[in-house]
Amino acid sequence: MASIRIADEPAFVLHSIPYKETSLILDVFTRTHGRMALIAKGAKRPHSTLRPVLQRFQPLLVSWSGKSELRTLTKSEWVGGMPSLVGDALLCGFYLNELLVKFLAREDEYEKLYDRYADTISALSNLEFESKGLEEILRPFELSLLQETGYAAALDRCVETDDLPDAKTLYVYQPERGVRPAQSDDPGHWPVIRGESLLAIAAGNFSDPETLSESKQLMRFLLSLHLQDQVLTTRQILIDLKKI
Question: Would the pLDDT of 108 be above 90?
Answer without folding.
Answer: yes
